[in-house]
Design goal:
636 residues; alpha+beta; 6-stranded mixed sheet; 22 helices
Length: 636
């Protein structure tokens, strides 16, 4: 955590942070140093510091021994700021590559309790290099002398095991469940990450307090862009952050008011259950909204009409007599965005929601929009139980649920088009084939299919309907409605907020290049502020709330304008690092079938994005960003 150099700091430069570089090959610290904060990117933390670190590396292979994997936190991680739980995993991505195969820098954010424990050990940035000689566990322990790191050999029972088995082992070894003491939290990979040479889109899975206490698989994820594969290439199966003492940094009365607004106010209403202060339902509500407009991804991003997936809408499932839905929260958060599904007990479902919460059957899974939509409607799978089961399987195998399901949708689509069937002829709606193929990919039995849709399409054909931008599979929003996808510097719906404008913005002018250029260059990138400071997207905290929270917690001056500028400089640095890796202008593109006049481009719900419109947007956006890299003197 940030440490003040004096009793009454007056500026962010009065703080220091600790960076450790650790070689997992030898189990040695290469560097353990306190750095003075030099600017607002350093102070806010997260990817603001990660991109600076990555700019010092010349990386051609994301799996090379000297390629870095960075773990760090934001200034709010582990503080009283509501949702301040984030850990960031940054590195060079196996799937986001230039056409000349150079990996590009990325990050993936993870909530849960691992981040606050990592912060309490005394580490702000941890840079991992090397490759352990045998499958290993990295232990980071809080001591009176500072963080202590060690490598221990993983037991044979953990090698090749699923996420659930790894979490259970670690919880029993490092925590005291009988006394309900949980000083340790964990970040692990599943079999997908262990088979990193053939699976490039593995995720990192983080423990939560509820998961450790209940035994139910309620994890959080650094899901996108293959950071679990990079961790696997280090031969690190698990990372333990153990801290007995919790240095919980509190704020003054200003923070209490901000937290109340975040947890209970209008800004987070969209992420709350209807029974929770008139919430609108969580991310799962997007299925019904998009489906009603005919733009819900369906059978590889090709909806043929409206209301195609009603059986697997959140609202349909929530109102069913077959399920009990309980809204749950991350540690210390009042938003309670998790929509957890349970079986109905033998005596039936109580009509009283309060009684139903206390009398339910077994846990079935969590309804979150991207996992449920992409493992459901986009695969042509419309059975609610199958949908929950398939999404839950992704988590246990340690997949990026977005990438693996877009891969399956592509293969299903491919098999409908020609004589050469692949993947045992898997087809839309084939739940057993989907389960089997995911297992085979995770355990390294399908090396091509584990490398993402771009690599698959380059090998077998089908580039026109392989749904990705820069190698990164589309999230659960149509490319036909989102010309901003190629300009995201990480996951498409987590680093460029243009994905819902077509439906949600009453001022949207879809055929106007001016509109899209303005949204991409002036608005879309602002959402990555959360990936610096350590708060959650769902807090919907604005720049005023962020700056006021900094003043409340750290007692130093800060302004909304400074948050904005640090965010934009970070975005520009990420963009500049793409240029450093050799990306060309034409690589900022989307598959040809999404454009108007093509096979998937003339949808009932969307038919505006022509190739001409997109290319004009691209030319203008790239021109503006390149100019701003120079104007802001972004060094890389």
């Amino acid at each position: 955590m940030l440490t003040a150099e004096c009793k009454q700091p007056n500026d962010v430069k009065d703080f220091r942070y600790t960076r450790i570089q650790y070689d997992v090959s030898e189990g040695l610290e290469i560097e353990n140093k306190e750095y003075q904060v030099t600017d607002d990117m350093d102070f806010l933390g997260g990817i603001g510091r990660s991109f600076k670190i990555l700019s010092n590396y010349e990386t051609k292979d994301p799996f090379a021994s000297d390629a870095p994997l960075i773990l760090n936190t934001g200034c709010f991680t582990g503080t009283q700021f509501m949702t301040g739980l984030r850990t960031y995993f940054s590195g060079y991505s196996p799937i986001k590559r230039t056409k000349s195969d150079a990996p590009m820098p990325v990050w993936s954010a993870m909530s849960g309790c691992f981040g606050r424990k990592l912060a309490y050990t005394g580490i702000d940035d941890l840079v991992l290099t090397g490759r352990a000689a045998v499958p290993s566990i990295l232990v980071i322990k809080q001591t009176d002398k500072g963080p202590a790191l060690s490598i221990i050999k993983a037991p044979n029972s953990l090698i090749g095991s699923r996420v659930r088995e790894k979490m259970n082992y670690l919880n029993a070894k490092f925590n005291n469940e009988s006394n309900k003491k949980y000083p340790a939290h964990f970040a692990v990979i599943g079999p997908a990450g262990e088979n990193w040479e053939s699976v490039w889109y593995a995720c990192v899975v983080g423990s939560t307090q509820e998961q450790l206490m209940s035994g139910e698989d309620k994890w959080r994820f650094a899901g996108r862009l293959g950071m679990g594969s990079v961790m696997g290439s280090k031969n690190i199966l698990c990372i333990v952050a153990e801290a007995e003492k919790e240095y919980y940094r509190k704020g003054d009365t200003r923070l209490k008011a901000i937290n109340n607004e975040i947890g209970r106010g209008e800004q987070s209403r969209g992420y709350r259950h209807p029974n929770n202060r008139d919430g609108l339902g969580g991310t799962g509500k997007n299925s019904k909204i998009l489906d009603s407009f005919g733009v819900l991804p369906y059978k590889n991003f090709e909806p043929t009409g409206e209301n195609l997936a009603v059986p697997v809408h959140l609202e349909t499932m929530r109102e069913s007599d077959k399920f009990i839905v309980i809204d749950k929260n991350c540690f210390g958060c009042q938003i309670s965005c998790h929509q957890d599904f349970y079986n109905v007990p033998p005596n039936g479902k109580s009509p009283d929601p309060r009684k139903a919460r206390k009398n339910h059957g077994d846990y079935l899974g969590r309804f979150e929009f991207e996992p449920m939509e992409l493992s459901g409607a986009n695969l042509g799978i419309l059975d609610p139980h199958d949908n929950l089961d398939l999404a839950r399987l992704d988590d246990d195998l340690g997949f990026d649920t977005i990438s693996v399901n877009v891969v399956l949708a592509f293969l299903m689509d491919y098999n409908t088009r020609g004589e050469n069937n692949v993947a045992d002829g898997i087809s839309f709606g084939d739940i057993e084939g989907a389960r089997r193929l995911k297992e085979n990919i995770a355990y390294g039995k399908e090396p091509l299919f584990g490398k993402g849709v771009r690599k698959i399409a380059e090998k077998i054909g089908g580039q026109a309907f392989a749904m990705h931008a820069k190698g990164v599979e589309f999230s659960a929003y149509l490319g036909q409605t989102n010309p901003g996808y190629p300009f995201a510097i990480a996951g498409g719906h987590m680093s460029m907020r243009t994905f819902l404008l077509y439906i949600m913005d009453p001022e949207c002018k879809p055929e106007s290049t001016d509109y899209w250029v303005q949204q991409i260059c002036e608005e879309g990138w602002k959402m990555i502020n959360k990936d610096l400071h350590g708060g959650c997207l769902f807090s919907m905290a604005d720049f005023d709330q962020i700056s006021e929270s900094i003043k409340s917690i750290f007692e130093v001056p800060f302004t909304p304008e400074r948050v904005l500028e640090a965010t934009y400089k970070t975005f520009l640095l990420g963009f500049a690092l793409e240029q450093k890796q050799g990306i060309t202008a034409t690589e900022y593109d989307m598959p040809s079938e999404v454009f108007s006049g093509q096979a998937k481009g003339n949808l009932k719900g969307a038919n505006f994005l022509t190739r001409h419109i997109f290319e004009e947007v691209r030319d203008r956006v790239l021109g503006k960003l390149n100019d701003d890299v120079k104007a802001f003197d972004v060094n890389y």
